[in-house]
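User: Please run a holo structure prediction.
Assistant: Happy to. Please share the sequence and the ligand.
User: Here you go; the ligand is NDP.
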Amino acid sequence: MDPVGEVSSSAKSKEKLAAPASAKAPPCTLVIFGAHGDLTKRLLMPALYNLTGAGQLNDDFKVIGVDRVEGSDQSWRDELGKTMQEFTTDPNAEFYTPEINKDWWGGLTSRFEYMQADFTNLDQLGQLKQKVTGNAVFYLAVAGRFFGTIVENLGHVGLITQADNAFRRVVIEKPFGSDLESAKELNARILKVLDEGQVYRIDHFLGKETVQNILAMRFGNGVFEPLWRREYVDSVQITACETVGVEGRGAFYEPTGALRDMIPNHLFQLLAMVAMEPPNSFSAETVRNAKEQLFEAIRTITPENAIRGQYTAGKVQGRDVLAYRDSPGVAKDSNTETYVALKLDIDNWRWSGVPFYMRTGKSLTGRLTEVVVHFKQAPFAIFQDTPVDKLSPNNLTLNIQPTQGVTLGISAKIPGPKMDLGGVEMRFRYEDAFKLTPNVGYETLLYDCLTGDETLFQRADNIEAAWRVVDPALKAWAADASGPELYEAGTSGPKGADDLLARDGHAWMPLNRD
Ligand SMILES: NC(=O)C1=CN([C@@H]2O[C@H](COP(=O)(O)OP(=O)(O)OC[C@H]3O[C@@H](n4cnc5c(N)ncnc54)[C@H](OP(=O)(O)O)[C@@H]3O)[C@@H](O)[C@H]2O)C=CC1
Ligand SMILES: O=C1O[C@H](COP(=O)(O)O)[C@@H](O)[C@H](O)[C@H]1O
């Protein structure tokens, strides 16, 4: 995370503000395990390309791709060139570029080297030793079952020892473990080889500008924080819903499911941003301590507060979608959940009695990631001629995607002779105020890893604390053969999720709204 830049004149100036330039990262070799994988193609390459364009990579930065697929330096570059073209020039992509900048791409790929190897094989991995000198970051863009083995193998061949002031760091993808026990075991294995300071457990939600903006909103403005507590907040909703289904990822998704895929990582990070106590600084340890303190205060979930669903065939935004069970790599009798809704309680002074609702799911009617803080109703209804449903309580929406910004729902007088109120919105939109640069979410995180800033990465205890909360739901579901409630693709999810909130007199915000 960069220190606070000069962005203060926005209110007065009509000119859009651009991000201040960052210094170049130090020289480094980035070794990507899983060089032919989906993450590498879809997200890591566009992020490296954008970092190249922003001039943030060192002249002595290079990339070694490791994968078992046969190939050469040139064939790897060519293959990535094709997928870059496909992903960045897709008009539906988050940051559409009509054409790839050949200078940036050529400059980046000239630093690429490919090594065909099985990373579970010590001899083959040992060949990396001659190629990697000085600073190195090892990026484990591979399935979770390989994390422990690769770290141990890097240790065996002597690649992670930090010498002569050179750093050796390992980026570990998610999901980190599949429950509390396996996360603890994995941490124990990794921390036998690496110091905690060398481990970068990545969560790409933290690379999203709008997620980091939650901290900016809360702690960079005096107006919100006094209201940010049980006395004024009625409930909080955290949503990360998608229109895409499982697509070609059935083999990964089947043993994973929506809860492991999204909740203890992405949604808990959103929760931390919204609910943690103000840290005294943005230093990595201070922020991670604040998160830990919050996670420890979350009550372990009980099964009645955890709803699961699975999509059946339907139409999503005019497109026919197969049932989850008919997707490639998925069992015909699969009980894997593609939707989860949870109600969480936080037992601390600030949040006691305020329900935090979370939901995430695939093949839904709208794509929406946001946090909505619902404030309590104004205490005294002097507007007696206004129907009660028009006296909408205030809510503050932290819009993450597709809209990026902040929206405050307020009541205002409807013009006319009567004192009548209507619900309206005050909106801040990123694109109106700032010059946006292409960003797939991994740029900041890669840059932070190269510069040694761990603030946006998970510490071992943060990960375990999140698994502790959700573990009972996973255990209850594993023991319950009745399986998830079915919902039709293209709807807003299972009825059980609506009932979860209705029990408390609440309702989810609609998924399809701007
Ligand atoms: N894809 C995404 O959008 C996201 C992925 N992630 C995480 O990133 C990680 C990688 O995911 P993803 O890219 O989808 O996975 P993939 O399976 O697409 O990529 C992994 C790559 O590693 C190769 N591989 C497997 N075993 C070996 C081996 N023993 N030696 C050498 N190479 C091997 C695979 O080859 P082969 O195909 O032959 O098995 C494949 O090319 C996962 O932890 C995932 O959870 C996180 C966020 C988003
Ligand atoms: O990590 C994951 O995240 C994506 C959603 O991320 P987003 O940045 O596109 O919102 C999700 O589709 C995927 O299943 C999950 O593994």
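The domain at 28-173 is CATH 3.40.50.720 (Rossmann fold).
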